[in-house]
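assembly run, all chains below
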Amino acid sequence: MRVTILGNNSALPAFGRHPTAQTVTMYGEVVLIDCGEGTQIQMQRYGIKWKNVNHIFISHMHGDHYFGLPGLINSMSLLGRTAPLNLYGPANLKPIIDAILQAANTELKYPLVFHALPAETELLADTPTFTVHSFPVVHGIDCYGFLIEMKTRGRRILPEKCMEHGIPSEYFEQLKQGKDYVGAAGETIKNELVTEDGPTPKKYAYCSDTLFTESFLHIIQGVDMLYHESTYLEADADKAAARYHSTAIQAAKIAVLANAKQLLLGHFSSKYKDLEIFAEEAMSVFSGTIVSVEGVAYDI
Amino acid sequence: MRVTILGNNSALPAFGRHPTAQTVTMYGEVVLIDCGEGTQIQMQRYGIKWKNVNHIFISHMHGDHYFGLPGLINSMSLLGRTAPLNLYGPANLKPIIDAILQAANTELKYPLVFHALPAETELLADTPTFTVHSFPVVHGIDCYGFLIEMKTRGRRILPEKCMEHGIPSEYFEQLKQGKDYVGAAGETIKNELVTEDGPTPKKYAYCSDTLFTESFLHIIQGVDMLYHESTYLEADADKAAARYHSTAIQAAKIAVLANAKQLLLGHFSSKYKDLEIFAEEAMSVFSGTIVSVEGVAYDI
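ok done. output:
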């Protein structure tokens, strides 16, 4: 599981930084979270293939989080997409997308399946690879965070042990699911002899944009990585509060309270050219802090 | 009068080329024509200041011509704009912009004055610096070209002659308007003694996107520069026709028929990496052809 940052700036593009967008990659499947202006170009730049994207999550209706969406949706159609695309966003996103498509007389070449975000915490997506829950955060308008949990791929096969016991590879899928092997002569090989525990599935939480709040702490408890917005430095804490944003130190406090293993900061105000101080301030509270850089993929 | 190309590609961004946007600068005032995704970033990159932009023209409702508009409108507000912004576009652009602003609970800090494009050729804008007429072109949906005509700044002052005749500089504005000077003692200095003809005001026509058609030739006759879309090369003339686009040779034919002084090509399909052949093909018909390059300012 890894996160690639496509845009780490807040409302105004500045210093080569773009509005918010990021992808989460799990077993080759890509989930896109937010889609600021220019996301399709950033995807090209950093080698994120639209064919691997089947789920897009939009946190809220401020433009720096979705103005790249109409272009991406359109381009996928022009490039020949036929697979359904699941779009999760605030209910008022759909009529805007519909109006844009209608004005262009565009009929997409693939099904665009819209899912309105529920007001309360809810299971949004459940695929063989991952689940996603949305949860409300506190911003000037309706705004949601996302908790992405990878699913286990089951137990890990020990190929040498399997050979030793003469288990053919077509049984591996059943072994992964924890089943014992029963041979042609009726002999049973216990599962734990030929497999071991698979890796623990990872959890990633995305919290942007939000005021400092403990309201969703119970949902993001123990995540392997927490992305939390940090629009401002501490000297501008009053500005952060007034605009329903957080500071780097506030983000770090949430990471501590949530027992997160790592903290990824983003959504930096265009008033800051140099981002080093974000790391300094946040690390005074939580040492596992990363100041996100566009184009970089962070392993979770 | 000069044109700066911010995006010269068609629907899909490719090879570092962006969707359509360009500016026309006259006496420091900037007119923006079309506003594809990423235009505000391209403006930053090429030093086009939003403060100098008071008029934006959107040719039609295909996304590659306006998906950068909501972001630019928003950014101008965040950056403290208070001066009115005139937006000219198809009538169905306004409800989309309104819905986007409403969903974000955004109230712009400046008046956004919307002007719906009329079905037939009409005077759209008349400022002290320029006039703009719109005219219908032939595309899959309602689509318009624009004719921009600079206004004369009047006669050119000959400062040495003025000094010779003792004319104070506060009279220069009247001299520019062609008036004679009458001194305190009642003596008259003929205007033509102290001024000469000013430069001939330039005309620029923007034609994108359109099928090859002679329907608007009478409007663009004699322009100093013609921008005409050339999505395809001649080998794809059938594709151009089917998709209501033009080839480079067709654009060149329009330049010949319109007696244009120069032809600027753009809106290149993402199927072409190398654009040299566009110049070759068009110049076989019209030698004054320029293949537009992003970031370059072309003097008219």
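Residues 93-103 of chain A form the longest helix (11 residues).

Chain A has ten helices and 18 strands.

not gonna interpret more than that til we talk
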